[in-house]
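Troubleshooting: if your tokenizer reports a length mismatch, compare your output against this known-good record of 106 residues.
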Amino acid sequence: MTTLIFGVVLILAGLLIKYGKIYCLIAGLNTMNHKQRAEYNLEEIGTLFRNVLGLVGIFMITGNLITRHFGNNLFDLLFTLVPALVGCIALLAMLNSDKYKNSFLE
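Known-good structure output:
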């Protein structure tokens, strides 16, 4: 049940970041000044967070439903840890690329 709730929370957080423009949920943006924030394309970063958090949330919900159906907690663990780790690695790799920096500053 916990992974079901957490999956829904992740999906909602992704939607809030993208459509609610609540970028304060992204770690590190609160400590940047306005000049540093202007270097990044926050719309594209919001889209990336929506996609990654949404996929991780969907996998967690799917794992919870499969666990309930088969009664094996291994599915819950597998559908929670693997997407979370892959999602974190993907976020770090993609955010460190130049794709999310504003090109007009160069």
